[in-house]
Amino acid sequence: MTALVQAQGLARSFGGGWLHRPPVQALRGVDLTVARGEALGVVGESGSGKSTLGRLLLGLLPPSAGTVRFDGQDVGAASRAEWRRLRQRMQIVFQDPFGSLDPRRRVGPQILDGIAIHGLMPPAERGDRLAALLAQVGLDPAHAVRFPHEFSGGQRQRIGIARALATGPEFLVADEPVSALDVSIQAQVMALLADLRRQLGLALLFISHDLPVVRQLCDRVVVLYLGRVMEEGPAEAVFRAPAHPYTRALLSATPRLDPRRRLPRIPLPGEPPSPANPPSGCVFRTRCPQAAADCAAAVPALQPVGAAHRVACLRAAEAA
Amino acid sequence: MRRLWLPGGLVLLVVLVALAAPLLGLPDPIRQDVARRLAGPMPGSPLGRDEFGRDVLSRLVWGARASLTVAFASAAIACVVGTLLGLLGGWFRGLGEFFAVRSMDVLLCFPPVLLALLVVTLLGPGSGTLILVLAALYLPGFVRVTWAEVLSARSHDYVEAVRALGAPTHRILLRTVLPNIAGPVLVQLSLAVASAVVLESGLSFLGLGVVPPEPSWGLMIRGARGTMAQAPLLLLWPCLALSLTILAMNLLCDALRDAADPRTAPAAPPRWVDRLLPGLLPPPRADAVLSMQGLTIEIVTPRGTIRPVEDVSLSVRAGETLAVVGESGSGKSLTALAAMGLLPPAARPVAGAAWFQGRDLLRLEEAEHRRLRGSAIAMVFQDPMSSLNPVHRIGDQVAEAIRAHQPLSARAARARAVDLLRRTGIADPDRRARAFPHELSGGMRQRVMIAMAIANRPALLIADEPTTALDVTVQAQILDLLAGLQRETGMALVFITHNLGVVAEIADRVTVLYAGQVVEEGTVAEVFGAPLHPYTAALLAAVPEGDGMAAGIPGTVPPPQDLPPGCRFAPRCPHAAPACDAPQLLAERAGRAVRCTRADELALAA
Amino acid sequence: MIWAAQRLAVSLLLVWCVASIVFLAIHLVPGDPAELLLSSGGVAPDPAAVAELRERLGLDRPLLDQYVAFLAGLPRGDLGASLVDDYPVLDEILLRLPRTLELIGAGALLAVLIGIPAGTRAALHRGGAFDRFASALAALLLAVPVFVVGTLLVLVFAQMLRWMPAGGYVPLAQDPGRHLLLLSLPALAIGKGLVAVVFRMTRTAVLDMLARDHVRTARAKGLPPGRILRRHVVRNALTPVLTVLALQMGSLLGGTVLVEYVFNWPGLSTPLLRAVEARDYPMVVGIVLVISALFVLLNLVMDLIYALLDPRVRRA
Ligand SMILES: Nc1ncnc2c1ncn2[C@@H]1O[C@H](COP(=O)(O)OP(=O)(O)O)[C@@H](O)[C@H]1O
Ligand code: SF4
Ligand code: SF4
Ligand SMILES: [Mg+2]
Fold it and tell me: For a surface tag, which of A49, B343, B442, C61 has the fewest beta carbons within 10 Å of its beta carbon?
């Protein structure tokens, strides 16, 4: 598989500056690739930098350091015209089904916004495209004239997906697209995303804090903690044999229906430290059950532990 | 919306009259006729003549014209310039923001009347000066409103979505941001017009506004003051015209503000319908701490009365954990609030009973209920941030819960509060007791809520989605804490959640709600192991677990104003049959309860 | 602490901005003040007189010199002297300002004593008879401009009923009873708007608070209603109410002009109006400056009180 999106040394901080408290370091030193047609899951607790990563990859937020290449092209260095062309090829779906649609406009024109902005199609043909898009996400084309508030959460999420698909993107960032939905609806939208990926060959960055959901949809996973990558690898391997103490704790804390699937709980003391003041060395060391003195010394590098499976932990080999 | 008509009509009338002043065939408002000085009503002058013998009615009408011209012109200028500055400042931030918004702070340092007087001193009185001054006065309001609205609009995903689509800035500002901030700007505009009318008349009254002999309401009052003793009516007319106009404008502003702000939607008026008589229901289960039977809740909404909870029964024993599961809108929280006696004003329990320690909670006097709340029955809510009072220290809030039910000194209660915080796993409780809620993390806040709830050793703890807002590792901590406390105290726990995994981990029994009704009830092992109701089965299949793709349930939960007549799950049920068109009853089946006629055949078929 | 110091610095900066704007406004607006001052009825003034006045005012010096001299005078309280009677501007202000503040204080007292309890009561019984009556009354009070109320009060109580004089002022030390009698009508006129605004804000804030989750928590704790009302509703509602009250009091600095005029109350407005009419620049500038500075100071104090009332503000 060829790399479609490639990030190198990506970092981003917020705030700080004149007379302020230290900046929030939302993301630090992240290297990552998304291959064409691949679904990469990003997991982590709130504030771990998942959304920031998504917006950086899309170029919606300039990085503090590092580069993002899309199909070989440096997104940060793109000219205005190039940037506009890139916008058609990469899109985003948001978490909040109520905040992601303009409450004052009918959904049809909103779905067609991308096509209108880029003048992709003669206006006469847009009606057909709209109907096709709505059908593709499982909605009645007659719904195009309604306003967002007339839809349920799951339906709005489908509309958001239709809007993102309108320009025919190759890369989609889905930022917690099912987290605000009820389980029965969540499964519907997951199935839709899986179908679309198959049909359209989309590359997907799927952001979620819900590990089982990621496992269902994604080929590969990246585990973030406090803005750093803790572990990455094939979804199957990471979930079956998590190598990082944090991943293990996260998996063991995930409630399970089936008692046989339940892992012995690895309790984590306390809560994640403030990203404005992260621990030195391994950022996880303040809560890590295996932490030792050397963990404070340097930031552990990602080391391979299996095929394409890498872990940033000094003690990854001893444990497991 | 109805509130808009009367004031709107009145304002429109004043505006129309002012516009039509030249067409009404009124006498010249400026021509003096000293012979008719202070004359009473007479033909051609229904309101009489003023101190210079000028026609009062004509001066009133032309005065409206002067006032409104100044008011509308100044408000319009302020609106256009201010909105533009606010838009640019809010969108581009940085230096532009600094100048657009901070310069307004300087303008705001001048009390309004003072600024007006200063400018009048410099430029001399007159309508032009007035318009300039008033526009400058209202400018900061528009800048600030627009700026704040743009900032909040910027953070909305739908603005981000348009940006992600590659829309150019001017398109985002004009097509997406501006329409969404139009409401507040319109409200600001109406406020500015109304207050400009007030200021204009005040300045004219001081002789610093409209220049005589031009008619103006303020000038008329100024003139009439001199002859107050002889002709008090002369004073009355302009006062009345001015006050009525401002009143109508203010009312219009209020109505517009309400229309633009969904938060202030009017609540349903209370109804004087009595509750049903108790006694028709089976007696409570002997060993249950809480036994709720046939609870039905009605809410009066503007679009009719709805029943978001109907015939809900549940019971929980000491030391037992009952999970109440259901998707959003299934009536979980209302059921819990009914037991606490904390239903919102528009909601009333209309049938059923909730037995607790020999008393029916649904029919308790408020004072009696209050003595139970926080002592024998306690509750923990979903959002620990908003559930704590931001202005009091958490130690005080816990101590307050203790003192509400125990005769302790403030000192002793504080010491107990610190103990409780320690018991709920808060490190360094002495120091943390003095913290304010915003200084704690989400998990910590939820621990405080739990400390408050167990302060008086409740027999029953109701936890309404206590971990939904928390991360999984913190959720695991809180679940462990609750389980530990329950082991120690033997309290009964009702745990409301939509997360079936959590149910499987902590609960003994489970009650499944769908669209306001109990559809299945039993031990967790039985219900999750072999669900009897098609909804329970579908819900379990929708949980992502393992490698296979979870299966969604087609369709959505019906809203309470639009429930199917028969089985409420029928439109989404794969097993629906003609028999399902009849209302379904909760039936006993092998020690479990299920609300489905076909449960037997389906179980057999399986 | 850093926060308070920062606020103080910003306030000083604002006062400096205000002073500079006032100075620039006077000197950059077309038309020579001296000429304007001496001209009457379109007759061109005597050039010699103009030149003499310009020299007296220092207008013949370079603008920057004048600006520096003006700023340098401020910390010493040197605001110049009236062009009309040569009386020091600061002395005039110090004599009259307390009387204006007394009016505002009396109005604010009324607002707190009537507005807050009435607003709370109206919110607790929303839609009830008291709420409807008080809300309508507040709307009416807000609609009638202050000089209309003042004029009507004079008409009714002084002209028709003859219960009290139409206006005037007697120092408190000289005759406390009469001082208060003369204070009552203007205080009522000033207070009517304040009471109405505070009433409405209290009602809204209390309604808002009643719907908050933390009030539900307080009820779930089984607290008695009185305590919930005091500690969890009114206490939290106080922040927006006091903010509005402060804003209103601020705009009354200078806004008392109308009332003082109607009731002949010898506050700051008398010299201000006289100065505006006579184009007595030093007087106008002095009064505007002092009042604006007071206004900034009031905002500063309010911010500090705000921080005391709401711990969330302190760290921001
Ligand atoms: N626009 C912003 N301004 C300031 N801080 C931000 C901003 N966006 C994100 N952050 C901070 O960066 C960190 C990572 O945030 P985010 O990427 O949203 O995490 P996640 O999506 O994993 O919850 C958090 O501490 C968050 O508060
Ligand atoms: S490096 Fe040390 S602290 Fe970090 S995860 Fe590994 S063992 Fe834990
Ligand atoms: S009653 Fe019929 S429709 Fe309802 S759940 Fe049972 S089988 Fe399905
Ligand atoms: Mg996020």
Answer: C61
Among B109, B211, B219, the strongest candidate for a mutation testing the C interface, having the largest count of C CBs within 10 A, is B109
Q: Most confidently modeled of A16-30, B205-219, B573-587?
A: B573-587
Element (H, E) at B322: strand B321-325
Question: Which one-letter amino acid corresponds to residue B242?
Answer: L
- Give the span between the Cα atoms of C22 and B115, in whole angstroms: 10
Answer yes or no: is pLDDT of C31 > 80: no
Tell me if A2 sits within 8 A of A35, measured CB to CB.
yes
Task: Kindly state whether residue B403 falls inside one of the protein's structural domains.
Answer: yes
- The total domain count for chain B is 3
Is the domain of B234 the same as that of B183?
A: yes
The closest of B203, B199, B198, B191 to B79, measured between CA atoms, is B191
Structure tokens, A300:
């552990």
B100, B203: one domain? yes
Provide mean pLDDT across the span B188-204. Answer: 87
Task: Quick: pLDDT tens for A38-55.
Answer: 999 999 998 899 999 999
Chain B interface mutation, best of A183, A215, A274, highest count of B Cβ atoms under 10 Å: A183
Please report whether residue B496 resides in a domain: no
Atom of ligand 1 nearest to the CA of A54: 17
Q: Is C126 helix (H, G, I), strand (E, B) or coil?
A: coil
Of B437, B455, B473, which residue constitutes the final position of a domain? B455
Task: Give me the CATH topology for the region C90-315.
Answer: MetI-like fold (1.10.3720)
CB burial class (10 A; 0-12, 13-18, 19+) of residue B266? exposed
Amino acid at C269: S
Residue B32 in any domain: the answer is: no
Collect all residues of chain B within an 8 Å Cβ-Cβ radius of residue C231.
Answer: 389, 392, 400
The CA B347 to ligand 3 mean position distance, Å, reads 29
* B424 and B528 assigned to the same domain: no
What mean pLDDT comes out for the span B465-484? 91
| pLDDT of res. C158 | 82
Read out DSSP for A63-82?
-SEEEEEETTEESTT--HHH
Nearest to C24 by CA among C63, C60, C57, C69: C63
CATH at B209: 1.10.3720.10
Smallest CA separation from ligand 2 atom 3, residue: A285
Q: How many CB atoms lie within 10 A of CB B261?
A: 12
Nearest to B113 among C221, C254, C311 (CB): C254
In this structure, the answer to whether residues B65 and B168 fall within a common structural domain is yes
Distance A224 CA to ligand 2 centre (A): 14
Q: Mark whether B241 and B280 lie in a shared domain.
A: no
Domain locations in chain C as residue ranges: 90-315
CB contact under 8 A, A104 and B165: no
For residues B249 and B273, state if they share a domain. Answer: no
Cis? peptide before C98, omega within 30° of 0: no
Residue A310 φ then ψ, to 5°: -130, 150
Please indicate, yes or no, if residue B38 is contained in any of the structural domains: no
- Above 80 in pLDDT, residue B29? no
Same domain membership, residue B228 and residue B275: no
Smallest Cβ–Cβ distance between A182 and the set B161, B327, B549 belongs to B327
Range of the domain at B415: 383-455
Residues of chain B with C-beta less than 8 angstroms from the C-beta of A60? 160, 163-164
The Cα of C174 is separated from the nearest Cα of chain B by a number of Å equal to: 30
Nearest CA to C39 out of C53, C23, C24 is that of: C53
Q: What is the ipTM of this complex?
A: 0.89
Distance CA A210, CA A189 (A): 15
Instruction: Decide if A215 and B180 are in contact by the 8 Å CB cutoff.
Output: no
- Do B359 and B334 reside in the same domain of the chain? yes
From the list A319, A293, A171, the residue with the least C-alpha distance to A231 is: A319
Angstroms from C176 CA to nearest CA on chain B: 29
Query: What SS3 state is found at B42?
Result: strand
What's the pTM?
A: 0.83
